[in-house]
Design goal:
Length: 190
């Protein structure tokens, strides 16, 4: 499934779940008086009972603010957006990103959707998010079920974009354990 089809399917499901058309939902977003992405997502979750992933996708759709839309609007390519994510004080984190992506690409085919500050990695659904959380660490968000969290594999609150998060501060932390978790999430997204 390509990224456009996945988003179209999710948007159609959002319409079904909310009972509102995309045009009606766009009016809710644009008429809210809110400007920041996070505020809009929080408003949709509170006012319409949407899950985080649906609210996030809808806000990106309405504002045309996802990485793919941003790339199309600016004429940029995804590699250029990745360079921007790891620019300035975050440039030192690029080797961690590259080590992660080198390991993940060995799994097989998947979609890479650059977003404003991270990459969304997708099979039939998102299995991971990779991006700098601060100037000193990359975070790997993982979507998988039935796994016990650990001190390293931090379980996240329900309703978020990922069920688990791993903080990575050095390339040697891109080890068998971390790659195993990512592989488990990848396999579940096929």
């Amino acid at each position: 499934m390509d990224m456009d089809k996945a988003v179209a399917t999710q948007l159609a499901n959002i319409e079904k779940r909310t009972g509102k058309t995309l045009a009606q939902l766009a009016k809710v977003v644009t008429g809210s008086g809110l400007a920041r992405h996070g505020e809009l997502v929080a408003m949709l979750k509170a006012d319409l009972g949407m899950g985080h992933g649906d609210a996030n996708t809808l806000v990106h759709h309405v504002l045309k603010s996802d990485g793919a839309s941003a790339a199309a609007a600016s004429g940029s390519d995804p590699d250029q957006l990745i360079d921007e994510i790891y620019s300035g004080p975050k440039a030192a984190l690029r080797p961690i990103h590259d080590a992660l992506m080198a390991a993940i690409t060995r799994f097989g085919p998947f979609e890479i959707a650059p977003k404003k500050g991270y990459l969304s990695l997708r099979g039939k659904k998102q299995f991971a998010m990779v991006g700098p959380a601060t100037n000193s660490r990359v975070e790997v968000g993982l979507n998988m079920k039935g796994v016990l969290g650990t001190a390293r594999l931090e379980a996240q609150k329900p309703g978020g974009m990922c069920q688990y998060k791993v903080k990575v501060t050095a390339t040697d932390e891109v080890d068998h354990e971390l790659i195993g978790w990512i592989r488990q999430a990848y396999d579940a997204a096929l």
